[in-house]
Every structure is written in C-alpha cells, then in structure tokens.
Amino acid sequence: MKKLRVDLNADLGEGSPNEPELLRLVSSASIACGFHAGDPASIGHSIRAAHVADVAIGAHPSLADRENFGRLEMPITADEAFALVTYQLGAFAALAKFSGAPMRHVKPHGALYNMASRDPALATAIAKAVRAIDASLILFAPGKSALARAGETLGLRVAHEVFADRNYLPNGSLVPRSRTDALLREPDDVAERVLRMLREKVVRAVDGTDIGIEADTICLHGDGADALAFAKTLRAVLAAAAVEVAPPFA
Questions:
Q1: Contact at 8 Å (CB) between 91 and 34?
Q2: pLDDT value, residue 202
Q3: pLDDT value at position 223?
Q4: Do 144 and 100 touch, CB atoms closer than 8 A?
Q5: What crossing angle do the helices spanning 110-118 and 78-98 adopt, rounded to 10°?
Q6: What's the rounded Cα separation, in Å, for the pair 247 and 217?
Q7: Which is it for strands 202-204 and 210-212: parallel, antiparallel or unpaired?
Q8: How far apart are CA 217 and CA 163, in angstroms?
Q9: Which residues pair with 95 in a beta bridge?
Q10: pLDDT(224) > 70
C-alpha cells in the first residue's frame, strides 16, 4: 500500500505567541502580508523564522481589511483583486529574496479565499497574479473549487487544502464563522477527522453525511487558541499512523 503523505500548514505572522512552537510542528507556513495582519518588519521576521526552522514559506494575501482581520466579504472587482494580490506578493517576494528564503506557495486569506473559491472571475484574477509574480509558485485552494480550477487552467501547481479545525457544510464549503458550530474544539476530534480525510478521502459534514475531499495540505489556524494543542496531537497521530509530513510537491 502506498505510504500516505501530507503537508501541514499554519497561517503565521498574525501576532500569535505560539508561532515559535508551531514552526517546530508544521511543514509549511502561510505568512500574513500586512493587509489583514502584520507589517514589513513582522513579515521579514516570520520569513526568517520559518526558513531557520526549515519550513516551506508562502504568502497569505488578503483583502485590505485589518479592522475585520480580512474575514468580512466585501465587493471587489477582478481587476482590483489582481492589483491587490500582485502588490502583496511583490512585496513579500522581495522580503523573502532579501532574507535568502525561497517563497514556495500562495494561499489567499479569509474572505478573499472563500470568495475566490466560488467566483471564477475572482479566482482567475488571483491565479494570474500568482503567475505574474512567479509561475513556479504553488497555489493553495480547496479541491474542486473555482480557485483550484483557475490555477490549474493557468498552469500553476495546485495543492488541495483542507481544514483540520473547521466544520464543513454538505456542499463541501466551510461552515461560516458566524455559526457556533464553525470550529472543532477537541484535538482528538481534529486528528480523527484528518486521518479519515487521508485514508478514506471523505469528511463528515455537519448534517452527518460524508462528502468527498482531496487533501494535499492541511491547515491549522495559527491564531486559534487551540492551534498548538491541535498541532501537537495531530503530529503525534500522523506519526503513529506512519503518515509522512512534508511540503506539497517536495
């Protein structure tokens, strides 16, 4: 039987005190680009910390919305999205180059990620921005989403992302954070869910049905209060199950 392998990523550069510990547990880091969290100094610090920890480095561009942490959906045209993402990736790439740390992937943040997963025009704009900066970059996107399709159409490598600590609706989208059942609370539940994703390629939706899912990379939200506990439990369970943890396409 083929050995299972998956990437474990965390969103970093968002002010969490757990980041040094998380960098010892994850294989990829998606670092805030300053529009929902962080600033040029923090971006550079997070890039260097990830590089020292031998963690793959990625950019985490967002809507320009620090007030709502980039999690409030708002109107944006495709042209505006292209400019917004290109601007953030360009600055991030320059800081990474200065730090001698290769930029490996891009993962849109929060509302921008969710909107692009549904909207083909927005998804194409983001994929074009990634390609314009560096066509070798990996785009993180939900499997079967508009964002994944746009990346694949434009010739990008796409890593299908799943969420260890979020609940799913029957249509495969994430339960909105406005709902009380949006997040998983117990580390053991998170680990059990991830193993099912990898072994059976399904996830249990909130209505009790199983839906198909593709998991190349697993996200743990670095700003979550339970992020460190989730990461420790998940790494231990994956090790016990002989699942290799490594960046996608490495």
A1: yes
A2: 96
A3: 67
A4: no
A5: 130
A6: 8
A7: antiparallel
A8: 9
A9: none
A10: no
